[in-house]
Amino acid sequence: MQCKSPLLICPKDVASAGKSLEIHLQDAFFADLEQEEIKGGDLKVVLSVKNTAPDYFDVKLSAEGSVVTLCDRCLEDLQLETKVEETLKVKDGEWAESDDPETLCTEANGKIDLSWSTYELIFTSLPGKKTHSIEECNTEAVKFIAGEI
Ligand SMILES: [Zn+2]
């Protein structure tokens, strides 16, 4: 387990620094999240934060690299390339009724952990049906499954 998430950021500090953050996500990032869809990966995440209004930030997040998941057909490891970009709305402070339902809020210390948002972004960028090309699939498993059905 990692003791600190690589995606725990303070939007206010990042915005005032005016620089984008570059974060390298590897297998440990996916292992630490409570999910079973993505087994591992190697991605470069770039975060940049813009102060849009007092206490409101646009966090632009892009991720590019590869992830390892399971092939839907042969159930063996499948590496997929992905490239995705999204802007998240973050508010410094508690969420209020007037806020957009999509708005994320920081904790009392002004920090926010974007691990899950980043994971979801990466996961939804993957194709719905995850399979090897037929030549790369484990043919023994394919034959077995075909025989079973
Ligand atoms: Zn396969």
Q: Can you describe what's shown?
A:
The strands form 2 sheets. A 5-stranded mixed sheet has the order 2-3-4-5-6. Strands 1-7 form a two-stranded antiparallel ribbon. The N and C termini lie far apart (40 Å). The protein is an alpha+beta fold. Strand 4 and strand 5 form a beta hairpin. The chain is elongated, with a radius of gyration of 19 Å. The model has no long low-confidence stretch (mean pLDDT 92). It contains 4 helices and 7 strands, in the order E-H-E-H-E-E-E-E-E-H-H. The site of zinc ion has 8 residues, from loops.
* Average pLDDT, all residues: 92
Radius of gyration: 19 Å
Q: Determine the N-to-C terminus distance.
A: 40 Å
What is the succession of H and E elements?
Answer: EHEHEEEEEHH
Number of strands: 7
Percent in helix:
10-25%
* Overall tally of structural domains: 1
- Tell me the β content: 35-45%
Spatial sequence of strands, sheet with the most strands: 2-3-4-5-6
Bound molecules: zinc ion
